[in-house]
Design brief:
Shape: globular
Radius of gyration: 16 Å
Helix content: 40-55%
Distance between the termini: 12 Å
Number of strands: 8
Order of helices and strands: EHEHHEHEHEHEHHEEH
Largest sheet: 4 strands, parallel
Structural class: alpha/beta
Length: 204
């Protein structure tokens, strides 16, 4: 069984649909801990280390053979916590970051500022010393729309921000919730999102 650690319930149907479309038969168990993101935004990702460790330990105790953390803000904390658990723990954005790291000019787009540095750090890590021209962009006001349940307004704001990006070889959507904005942008630069490659890697 693959356990998924979420910080929003809206991600549950997203990953169920991806499983049904590409990984039939893969057993998923969803764990939703919205409090982890709220505290990480307010106090920094490391402040939730104990909570992440407890959530992962509970998943393993329930029979998970691997865990996928779908929150980019706490993904690094989850991977580090997983080292002591004896099962693989993967952050959902690592496969996306690996793909982005092979590009020369990368723009990371996020709706939450707390997501920017963890994502940028991961891309640099995956670049393994190769030079990466990395820029970041926060979509002002988008997260308030997400929290208010205005999914279309949220995705349209993200897509508009992506449309504004120039001089990039690849654009990275830093959060799982942003993935569908890739279908709303008119920018011809490749746009990478994390849910599909993340689930594929975790399932493997």
């Amino acid at each position: 069984m693959l356990a998924l650690l979420h910080t929003s319930p809206v991600h549950v149907p997203v990953f169920d649909a991806l499983r049904d479309a590409g990984h039939p038969g893969l057993a998923l168990r969803h764990l939703v801990h919205e409090d982890l993101l709220a505290r990480a935004v307010a106090e920094g990702p490391q402040a939730v280390a104990a909570g992440v460790e407890a959530a992962l330990a509970a998943a393993v105790a329930a029979g998970a053979s691997a865990v996928l953390c779908t929150c980019s803000t706490i993904g690094g904390v989850a991977e580090r916590a997983g080292e002591a658990l004896g099962v693989p723990v993967l952050r959902v954005d690592r496969p996306m970051a690996r793909a982005a790291a092979s590009a020369g000019r990368v723009v990371v787009v996020a709706a939450l500022e707390s997501t920017l540095e963890p994502t940028a750090e991961l891309i640099r890590e995956e670049a393994a010393g190769r030079p990466v021209d990395l820029r970041t962009l926060v979509v002002e006001g988008a997260w308030a729309r997400f929290e208010a349940g205005d999914r279309d307004g949220y995705l349209d704001a993200v897509a508009a921000a992506v449309d504004s990006v120039t001089a990039a070889d690849v654009i990275v959507l830093a959060q799982v919730s942003m993935a569908d904005a890739a279908r709303r942008t008119t920018n011809t630069t490749p746009v990478l999102s994390s849910p599909r490659p993340g689930l594929a890697a975790a399932g493997a």
